[in-house]
Amino acid sequence: MEGRLLFLLCVLALGRAAVILNDCQIIQTLHGKLLYDNRVTYMREYFPIDYKLYVKYEEVLRCQNITTLKNKGITVKELRYLWGIINESILQTIQRALPQRHPTRPYITELQNIFKVLLRDTDEQQVESDLVLKLLEQLNQSEDRMKAVTPKALLDNCFKVLYALYEVECALCNPRMIMLL
């Protein structure tokens, strides 16, 4: 009986490790796509100077927001879900602003596909925090609180929050630190 229980616990632990490895492979791919050179090329050089998109105030998710939400007791799992939903929405906003043959369109489509894969195993039912549910509701409703932000700044925030949420678990390297060495 104890042997079966131990075996079951081992299988569950290995299954969890496999899920983490799969998520980390997706995160590593996303990390590579969001590196600085790509963000500059696709989000700044291919857009007119000072081009800004109007996004909902809640869609501007920065590391400071993540820290504040962590201090309010939001779990990392919920923060990752919120980050994924917000950036999926941002990518849709960028995609809508692009002309059909814009050189950034395939890049945004790739990022959208990565976010779809990342979010496919999670759903809103796993979110337990009232604060996160309130933020998700505001994302779906508010049209009155808009903010003008450059496309590059939106993806810069995406990259920084990705790094903050997955750095340790997925062994992400900080390109800035490599350049300093």
From TrEMBL:
Any one Pfam family match given in the protein's UniProt record, by short name: IL34
Residues annotated as signal peptide: 1-17
Superkingdom of the organism of origin: Eukaryota
Keyword Signal: yes
The keyword Signal belongs to this UniProt entry's keyword annotation: yes
Key words of the record: Signal
PANTHER family from the UniProt entry: INTERLEUKIN-34
Name this protein carries in UniProt: Interleukin-34
Lineage: Eukaryota, Metazoa, Chordata, Craniata, Vertebrata
